[in-house]
Write a structure and sequence with these properties.
It is built from one helix and eight strands; from the N terminus they run E-E-E-E-E-E-E-H-E. It is mainly beta and about 100 residues long. The chain has one domain. The strands form two sheets. Strands 1-8-3-4-5-6 form a six-stranded antiparallel beta sheet, with helices on one face. The longest helix has 8 residues. It starts with a strand and ends with a strand.
Length: about 100
């Protein structure tokens, strides 16, 4: 697993459902700073033009962070880097590349 800073992602980068993101320094009461994060995943909402960023790791697991607008090309079912950056912010936020 490799973490790539979201700030380095081009605004036109495409992400599909299942893509995971990690946000650090979220304020958890943990011994190590490396454990102070939430992990989110893009989930598709059938029939909608949005994907949902849902927490999949941490005590907020199952809770949605934000709706992310999909790209204008309806046949592709992707979100762009710019939309993810807007939804999550770029500070201490990474895309997980496997």
């Amino acid at each position: 697993m490799k973490l790539r800073p979201l700030i380095q992602i081009h605004d036109e980068q495409e992400f599909w459902r299942g893509t995971r993101f990690r946000q650090y320094e979220v304020g958890l009461n943990v011994e190590s700073k490396k454990d102070d994060y939430y992990e989110y995943m893009l989930a598709e909402i059938p029939g909608e033009n949005y994907m949902l960023l849902t927490c999949v790791k941490g005590y907020k697991a199952g809770i949605a962070l934000a709706l992310v607008k999909m790209a204008d090309d309806k046949s592709r079912r992707v979100v762009k880097g710019k939309a993810v950056k807007y939804a999550m912010g770029i500070k201490d936020t990474f895309v997980i590349e496997e």
